[in-house]
Amino acid sequence: MRLGPGLLVTAAFIGPGTITTASVAGANFGFALIWTLLFSVIATILLQSMAARLGVATGQDLAQALRANIQTPLFKSLAIFLVISAIGVGSAAYEAGNLSGASMGLIGIFPNVNPQIWTPLIAFLSAGLLYSGKHKVVENALIVLVILMSLVFISTLIMASPSLADILSGFTPSLPEGSITTVLALVGTTIVPYNLFLHSGVLAAKHDSKSDLQKVIKQTNVDTGLSITLGGVITLAILSTASVAFYGTNAGQISAANMAVQLEPLLGDGAHYFFAIGLFAAGLTSAITAPLAGAYAVCGMLGWSNDMASTRFKSVAIIILLFGAAVASLGLDPVAVIIFAQAANGLLLPVITIYLVWLVNQKSVMGKFTNSFILNLVTLPVLMLIFGLSSYKLIGLFF
Questions:
Q1: What is the CATH topology of the domain spanning 5-398?
Q2: Minimal CA–CA distance to 216: which of 225, 226, 205, 208?
Q3: Is the whole model's pTM more than 0.85, yes or no?
Q4: Mean pLDDT by 10-residue block, N- to C-terminus, for the chain (399 residues)?
Q5: By the 8 A CB rule, do 295 and 133 touch?
Q6: How far apart are CA 120 and CA 330, in angstroms?
Q7: Burial class of residue 63, CB neighbours in 10 A (0-12, 13-18, 19+)
Q8: Helix, strand, coil percent content, the chain, rounded in steps of 5
């Protein structure tokens, strides 16, 4: 089978934010929070496989399915508002961070080049890929970047040489003092609501009612499992490297921007370039997938075509990209927009996951491809976690 759509999800959730969160987790708490990462990966595989199956079985992405199956006008209007606010506006707000992260990577690789050129250049490259409207071109570009990112961070882990016993000890659940916010951040940076729209949208666009849907779903499940596990391994590599380098050293503020420089004493001069390349790849993949996910969500909820080649789809994706580029290039402060997007996400994530589970249990929607009883049972603790995470995020924003 050919890996593809699942790797787009990996490309989307491994961005500068994930690098920072995993680095902070390793630097502040050592290997103790690896169990959180394992739980997050399992939860993400469960939810993404449902979204993917929805796209394969129905030919509709999650946004289109929501619009078609929410009958109450008030609930439908609320769903449209929440999805556009959280996914459309949220993608635009976070796009600035993605472009800035990719630029930081290139500044680290080419320190003597004028740093002002990188953000517009990366935005132009991303816009070119999105405007092509060709799934295969975008997919192949992202697959190459994910492979590059994997090689970089796993190589960095090997150079750091953490003890296998230390890594394995992290799979035993524990909550070190002051770790709850980092635990929730690790979960939140892995279970990303816009990836549900992205994954279902990419597969819905490839829908072929004449194909063997059972076979396609099996292939998609393998693709999803392997791709998201790879994303988990990349995050584990970053967390473990930060743990070896910084845990117990009072290294100060850790971020995606300064991680490369701070690794030099442990890994040598090459670490700077290694990590910078990884940061560039992570920023660029997220800079491409965020507008893509936003376009699927917005177009689906408004009843527009989800064809990547359609004018409306490309326009929404480019607007999201341009907003992020403007914020990143002009040094504007996106805090207000990000707070609004986080609040909308906090409300949206539990609503969307409940609706997703509801949709994939409807025979009228899925036919014979509904969830099994066992799958629903396994999903229950994931839903409870998501409600807890969203409640905590909303309380933290407003109180």
A1: Amino acid/polyamine transporter I (1.20.1740)
A2: 208
A3: yes
A4: 77 85 89 93 94 93 90 86 82 83 85 87 90 80 87 85 91 88 83 89 82 89 93 92 82 62 68 81 89 92 89 92 85 62 68 89 92 92 84 74
A5: no
A6: 11
A7: buried
A8: 80, 0, 20
